[in-house]
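Let's practice the habit of predicting before peeking. Look at the sequence and jot down your guess about where helices and strands might fall. Then scroll down.
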Amino acid sequence: MSNFFLPPDSPFPGTLVQIPHILNPRDLLAFHPFTDWLATLSNPRIGFLKLQADIGNAQRESLPGAVFMRGGSVAVLVVITVDDDNGHSQGEGEGEGGNDAEEFTILTVQPRIATGSLAFVELPAGMVDGATGSFAGAAAREIKQETGLDIREHELGVVVLHDALYTSPGASDEFIPIMAVRKTLSREQIERLRGNKTGLQNED
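Done guessing? Here is the structure:
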């Protein structure tokens, strides 16, 4: 057996590969099934980083710190108004501005080990798309994944006073804008949302 390292332009540069003596590394790298397999294994997206930093000044004072770097996320408050059989919201016209309409919101139940809970109740939330940086696009995608509802980006609005909230700035760079959307659904549609098992298991 002989060894060689994958070249810098490969999906896993510097990875040690062991091959039989009769096989030339160039032949292996020219073998499309092998290179296709490498490409399938690779994923250029970085999910999280953990940094250990030492900050100093001219007076030689230092401040150590660990950073859990995950970037921006987005949470969504979905307000659902019940639509009766007549095609308008129940309670519409009752009281000033139809304020008696029956409303619901959507919460998800997920295991959150850091909280010590396997059934943590929270707003639907997820990480922002690193390619586009779109908060509204990420919010619409998370709602679709976690509830099955189709939300258009232009329907979403930011409901926090500032652009975003930092969840734990002493240890993480994560910031979360909270967006909101209103939808009108029938009771049958609302009942179908109850207890849905949705979302992606490999996503946080």
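How did you do? The first helix runs from residue 25 to 29.
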